[in-house]
Amino acid sequence: MSDKTGIITKIQRELFYVSIGNNVYPSKAKGNFRNKKITPVVGDKVDIHVENGLGFILKIHPRSVLLHRPEVSNVDKCFVLSSIKSPNINLMLLDKYLLMIEKNNIDCVIVFNKSDLVSDDEKKIFADIYRNIGYKVIFNSNESSHVNEELLKEFKNHISCVIGPSGAGKSSTLKKLFPNENFVSGKISEKTQRGKQTTRHIEIKMVDENTYVLDTPGFSSFDLSFLKDKSEIKNNFLEFRKNSSKCKFNNCEHINEPKCEIKKLLESGEISKSRYDNYLKIVEEYEKIRRY
Questions:
Q1: Is the overall model pTM greater than 0.85, yes or no?
Q2: Domain named CP-type G: which ranges (predicted)?
Q3: Which of 127, 45, 111, 46 is nearest to 78 (CA)?
Q4: What digits encode the pLDDT tens for the residues 143-185?
Q5: 139 near 112, Cβ under 8 Å?
Q6: What confidence score (pLDDT) does residue 193 get?
Q7: d(C-alpha 8, C-alpha 24), whole Å
Q8: Is 166 annotated as a binding residue?
Q9: If one looks up domain 230-291 in CATH, what number appears?
Q10: How confident is the model at residue 192 (pLDDT cuts 50, 70, 90)?
Q11: Is 161 among the annotated ligand-binding positions?
Q12: Which option is the CATH number for 4-60: 2.40.50.140, 3.30.950.10, 2.40.30.20, 3.90.25.10?
C-alpha cells in the first residue's frame, strides 16, 4: 500500500488510468468527488492510493486550464491541424478552435496538412492570414519520407493537445512523428471526402519523460458552449485584441460603431476578410443560442 502522484492519461469504462513514471495504475474515483460534482478528466494531476495494483483517486490537483471539447486539463500547447484540400479547408471551424484556445490562454501552432496537394501560392494565402495575426504556421505532408523536424520540435517538453476536423490527418501525423506510439489513423472516403473518425476515446500518451500528446476525435462542427459572455469573442480574436484600444468606444463591438479601428484595418486589408466575416457569424450564432 502506498500513495503516489501521477497524471490521468486515459479514461475508459469508468476507470481512470494514472501514469506514474513507466507504470500505469487503473484507478477509481472516490465517492466524495461525485458528491461534490467533480469529475476527473484526462490530464489531471492526481494523488492516488494503491492497493494490489488498483488505485483510488484521493485528490485532484488544481488545474491550470480545462478544455471542454475535448475535455482535458493542464494542456500548455494546442496544435490545430487542418488540410487545405482533401477535404477542403473550413476556416470557420479553424477560427472557432482558435477562439477556444485563446480564451484558455494556450500556446498554439497551426498545422496545414497534406501540403503536397497544394501550390505555393495557395499555401501563401492561408499562411499569410494567420502568420500576420501572430500564429506559428507549419506546413506538413505525411507523404514525405522524412519526419518533419520543425513540427516534432514543437511538441518537445509540452503537454500537447492535437485538434482539428475529421480527415485532417491528425492521427496519421502523430503516427509519423511518434512511430512507437499507437496513434490510430483512418482513410478519407472518396465519396464524401470526409475523414472516417478513428479516435474513439480520449487518451494522452507519454512519448518521453517530459512530453505528453493527446489525440482527439475529429469534429465537423463545433459549438460555442465554452463561451460565457459575448465579449469573449472580440477579446479572443488576436488581431482585434491588439488594435481595439484605438476604437472610439471602449466597448466597441466592431460591427456598427463609427470610428472603429478594426473596420478601418479591414478596409485597408490589414485584417483578413475571412476572419472578420467569421467573427460576425460567430457573434450571430452566439446571440441566437442565447435567445433560446
A1: yes
A2: 63-222
A3: 111
A4: 999 999 999 999 999 999 999 888 888 889 999 999 988 876 4
A5: yes
A6: 41
A7: 9
A8: yes
A9: 1.10.40.50
A10: very low
A11: no
A12: 2.40.50.140
